[in-house]
Design a protein that fits this description.
With 350 residues, this protein is of the alpha+beta class. It has helices at 42-50, 92-102, 107-120, 136-148, 166-183, 194-200, 218-223, 228-233, and strands at 4-13, 16-26, 31-35, 57-62, 65-66, 77-80, 154-158, 186-191, 203-208, 211-216, 240-247, 250-252, 257-259, 266-272, 277-279, 287-296, 300-307, 310-317, 327-332, 338-340. It has a 6-stranded mixed sheet, with helices on both faces. The longest helix has 18 residues, at 166-183. The protein binds adenosine-5'-triphosphate and magnesium ion.
Length: 350
């Protein structure tokens, strides 16, 4: 089974650059998630790999084969589309059987494969329905089943869980994780859901405006973000990003006045995760503000502290409830502050 290589891949439509000079290598058998906000170029990148769009510049390899000019049907990729693309006149059973017919799997095997796959995606009871008689989440499971029923060289999945409710999504996520472990088919998985990306993928490619921001293991994306965009995109709630000035080894902003071990002077964006901020007494404080909100989520309480327009969120235990407008002092966990360039968001080694 081959990996996938993107070399300086760009896709333009007139003035729109959907994918901007992206290079990355997906290893054989790897599960890579493309993560980013709406419009950042995730689907386009995937469609370029599938051969459904023409590359403007650059090269794509599947295994060691340059596929720029290879017909989509000859790439041996199986794709789950964002909008399902099921055959409306066919039952679920026939939708699942379709890829088996196209790839000439012996008829005797169809029934068993349809049965195994429909169990995997929890569709066994719906095999005789047509797409119009299914909910969005059920349709999406048919699309997923149709992609996994045969074993292609590459799976391309575009938000395959997006129309399911939270509970089903969680069980399908576990199913996909287990499936990949068993099949070990090279997979590109597109999502704007950071939890999906972080939990499923061996590596995550974070995109913004067509540009690859970082391509790394989930733990590195979380612990070692390359840009303020990546830092602000993962984690729930996301990393706090606070603009301020470092002068004479102190960082100062509306909320914060705190010593920093650095010789850097000037404006920076400070990044600190909610779980690395602790409530403390005035003496040890890095900052102070008034409580803006206190939200108990069931497992924890998210407290947001504000001074004017500047806000910072921290995590506390679920037993904590803080009155709005009270004053709160906080400090940062040692060694857990990140600094980013205020203009381009690059991580600064300071
Ligand atoms: N056929 C097209 N012609 C012109 N522009 C397009 C075309 N398809 C996509 N785009 C533009 O390319 C950019 C990237 O689109 P793409 O569909 O790849 O985003 P995405 O990351 O998948 O977003 P979403 O999460 O909303 O699905 C967008 O600005 C989009 O408007
Ligand atoms: Mg998309």
């Amino acid at each position: 089974m081959p990996g996938i290589i993107l070399k300086n891949v760009t896709k333009r439509w007139g003035a729109v650059t959907a994918v901007d000079n992206v290079s990355l290598e997906v290893e054989d058998g790897e599960f890579v998630a493309f993560l980013g906000p709406s419009g950042c170029g995730k689907t386009t990148t995937m469609r370029l790999v599938a051969g459904l769009e023409q590359i403007t510049e650059g090269e794509i390899y599947i295994g060691d084969r340059l596929v720029n000019e290879v017909d989509p049907r000859k790439r041996d990729v199986s794709m789950v589309f964002q909008n399902y693309s099921l055959f409306p006149h066919m039952t679920v059973r026939n939708n699942l059987a379709y890829p088996l017919k196209v790839s000439k799997v012996p008829r005797a095997d169809h029934e068993r494969m349809i049965s195994d796959t429909s169990k995997m995606v929890e569709l066994s009871d719906l095999l005789d329905r047509k797409p119009a008689e299914l909910s969005g989440g059920q349709r999406q499971r048919v699309a997923l089943g149709r992609a996994i029923i045969r074993r292609p060289k590459v799976f391309l999945m575009d938000e395959p869980l997006s129309n399911m409710d939270a509970i089903l999504r969680q069980s399908m996520r576990a199913e996909l994780k287990n499936l990949h472990h068993r099949l070990k088919v090279t997979t590109i998985y597109v999502t704007h859901d950071q939890v999906e990306a972080m939990t499923l993928a061996t590596r995550v490619a974070v995109m913004k405006n067509g540009v690859l921001q970082q391509f790394d293991q989930p733990s590195a994306i979380f612990e070692n973000p390359a840009t303020s965009f990546v830092a602000g995109f993962v984690g729930a709630p996301a990393m706090n990003l606070i603009e301020g000035e470092i002068h004479n080894r102190r960082f100062a902003s509306a909320l914060i006045n705190c010593p920093m071990e650095t010789d850097f002077e000037g404006m920076v964006t400070l990044g600190v995760r909610p779980l690395d901020i602790h409530v403390c007494g005035r003496d040890e404080a890095c900052g102070v503000g008034r409580i803006y909100s206190s939200e108990m989520t069931g497992e924890q309480t998210i407290v947001t502290v504000a001074n004017g327009k500047q806000q910072i969120s921290l995590k506390e235990s679920k037993d904590v409830s803080r009155p709005i407008d009270d004053e709160l002092h906080f400090r940062f966990e040692r060694g857990r502050c990140f600094f980013f360039d205020v203009d381009d968001g690059r991580r600064l080694a300071i």
